[in-house]
């Protein structure tokens, strides 16, 4: 419905303002999402590690 869409938009805008404030307090000029890193352990047939 139309009112719920407006609430979602307002909530998104407010969250963006909060995140900009946090970035400013941290001394960052722009908001950047952290780059995810993954650590995968690959074992051979003789390895006792559980499969992922």
UniProtKB/TrEMBL annotation:
Keywords: Signal. Residues 1-23 form the signal peptide. This is Uncharacterized protein.
